[in-house]
Amino acid sequence: MSGATGVLGSSMAKYLAQNGARILVLGRNKVKVDRLVSEIVAEKGKAFPLLADVTDENQLKEVFATVEKSFGKLDILINAAGGNLPGAVIGPDQDFTEAKIEELRHVMELNYLGTFIPTKVFLPLMLGDKKGSIVNISSMTAQRPLTRVLGYGSAKAAIDNLTQWLAVEFCQKYGNGIRVNAIAPGFFLTEQNRSLLTQQDGNLTDRGRRIIEHTPMKEFGQPADLHGITHWLCSDASRFVTGTIIPVDGGFNAYAGV
Ligand SMILES: NC(=O)c1ccc[n+]([C@@H]2O[C@H](COP(=O)([O-])OP(=O)(O)OC[C@H]3O[C@@H](n4cnc5c(N)ncnc54)[C@H](O)[C@@H]3O)[C@@H](O)[C@H]2O)c1
User: Fold this and answer.
1) HEC states along the chain?
2) 92-147: per-residue pLDDT in tens?
3) Closest protein CA for atom 5 of ligand 1
4) Relative to the CA of 108, which of 99, 136, 163, 215 has its CA 20 to 30 Å away?
């Protein structure tokens, strides 16, 4: 799992470990990766550290060699590394022409190529059994572009398209065993967006308030809200499901606002 040391990723990793999965914790920061591995092992789970940047194919190829040697195959690939950058956002007082191309490129690379490259590198570990589940992490902003969030939304929309493309490609080339789906989380209060959604005193910002107003369940998601969907997509219970992008959003996507 990439992004395993992040807020959502670590919650998913621990949950899957509690349910018997061996977790390969992929991250860039050795201290964080080792810490998560220790936490999982302390709870009697199985976890192993892997170090790589998801946008670096050479680093991932080295990881591939380690995984192939140690485990021989991969049942599940969760591409949870991703994120936004301030320069890829158009602030309320900014003009579109001020968009910073380098930061836009970085966000596209992290989210899109950071999903594409690990899938490319690790797919051969699923081809032996012609079986595996690939789970990408999209966002609400892919299907319903959010104001300000320019680069991140484009990158997540590209992940949706890639998810569908890969699902079709893998069925046609390898049969029905290798499935590709995406989870589209709605608004989860995490470090990535805390200052956008809440003020220092904990009250909602204007944007946070408008999001809650547009969410029929009237709350932000909790990391644990992704456990069930992750479990289902990783298991044979979703055997006939591929190419889907599934919102976990308290109804945000369904609500027209009237
Ligand atoms: N938090 C939300 O509300 C929300 C909503 C929708 C989608 N998402 C998506 O869910 C995923 C997880 O988000 P999160 O809230 O846990 O964020 P997070 O910042 O806590 O976690 C992101 C993880 O990705 C890792 N990462 C970043 N760049 C990397 C790189 N180049 N190589 C390897 N690892 C890298 C980070 O180290 C971190 O562990 C992301 O794809 C994010 O875009 C989050």
Assistant:
1) CECCCCHHHHHHHHHHHHCCCEEEEEECCHHHHHHHHHHHHHCCCEEEEEECCCCCHHHHHHHHHHHHHHHCCCCEEEECCCCCCHHHCCCCCCCHHHCCHHHHHHHHHHHHHHHHHHHHHHCHHHHCCCCEEEEEECCHHHHCCCCCCHHHHHHHHHHHHHHHHHHHHHHHHHCCCEEEEEEEECCECCCCCHHHHECCCCCECHHHHHHHHCCCCCCCECHHHHHHHHHHHHCHHHCCCCCCEEEECCCHHHCCCC
2) 899 999 999 999 999 999 999 999 999 999 999 999 999 999 999 999 999 999 99
3) 185
4) 215
Q: Can you give the residue ranges of every domain in the chain?
A: 7-254
> Would residue 15 show up in a list of annotated catalytic residues for this protein?
no
Q: Which of 2, 187, 190, 245 has the most ligand 1 atoms within 8 A of CB, as the residue to mutate?
A: 190
Pocket of ligand 1 (CB under 6 A): 2-3, 5-9, 27-28, 53-55, 80-83, 110, 114, 137, 139, 185, 187-188, 190-193
- Topology of 7-254 in CATH? Rossmann fold (3.40.50)
Specify the ligand 1 atom closest to the Cα of 29.
Answer: 37
Q: Which member of 112, 152, 174, 255 is catalytic?
A: 152
CA of 83 to the centre of ligand 1 (A): 5
